[in-house]
């Protein structure tokens, strides 16, 4: 059974950094787009970043220049390095995987077939 498990969340002060990891198991996701989404209380789940099998990356405007997504094929793992964190980055962060064949659709939640349970990131001011 395919499974995505996030780790690395926690509490950090504004300006600090965190690195999230997403370990995939149960199948190989090497040909899948891997993405990170987040959901703050009372808000819709939103796209944060995505990476294709060819390592093309896409970011939400709100995190460009601060977050970096990467993937390590041998470990079936995707990472999200988050720097210069702000209180508005506070949310539950979800890892997702999907067979997406158009770059323009990377940010669409419905394009992703597999989801992790999420990891909480809290940024204090």
Q: How helix-rich are the residues, as a percent range? A: under 10%
Strands, count: 11
Span of the ends, CA to CA: 40 Å
> Mean pLDDT, as a whole number?
96
Residue stretches low in confidence (pLDDT < 50, at least 5 long) are none
Q: What is the ordering of alpha helices and beta strands? A: EEEEEEEEEEE
Structural overview:
This protein is an all-beta fold. 0% of the residues lie in helices and 49% in strands. The protein has strands spanning 3-7, 10-13, 18-25, 33-39, 46-51, 57-59, 67-72, 77-82, 91-98, 114-115, 119-124. The strands form 2 sheets. Strands 2, 4, 5, 6, 9, 10 and 11 form a 7-stranded mixed sheet that branches. Strands 1-3-8-7 form a 4-stranded antiparallel sheet, with no helix packed on it. The termini are far apart.
What does the secondary structure layout of this molecule look like, with pairings?
Layout: E1 3-7, E2 10-13, E3 18-25, E4 33-39, E5 46-51, E6 57-59, E7 67-72, E8 77-82, E9 91-98, E10 114-115, E11 119-124
Parallel strand pairs: 2-11
Antiparallel strand pairs: 1-3, 3-8, 4-5, 4-9, 5-6, 7-8, 9-10, 9-11
Name the features.
seven-stranded mixed β-sheet, four-stranded antiparallel β-sheet, globular, mainly beta, single chain, about 120 residues
In short:
With 125 residues, the chain is mostly beta strands.
């Amino acid at each position: 059974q395919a499974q995505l498990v996030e780790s690395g969340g926690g509490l950090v002060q504004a300006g600090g950094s965190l690195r999230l990891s997403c370990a995939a198991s149960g199948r190989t996701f090497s040909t899948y787009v891997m993405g990170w989404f987040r959901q703050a209380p009372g808000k819709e789940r939103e796209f944060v970043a995505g990476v294709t099998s060819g390592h093309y990356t896409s970011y939400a405007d709100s995190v460009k220049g601060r977050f970096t997504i990467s993937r390590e094929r041998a470990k079936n793992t995707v990472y999200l390095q988050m720097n210069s964190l702000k209180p508005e980055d506070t949310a539950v962060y979800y890892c997702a995987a999907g067979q997406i064949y158009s770059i323009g659709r990377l940010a669409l939640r419905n394009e992703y077939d597999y989801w992790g349970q999420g990891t909480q990131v809290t940024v204090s001011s």
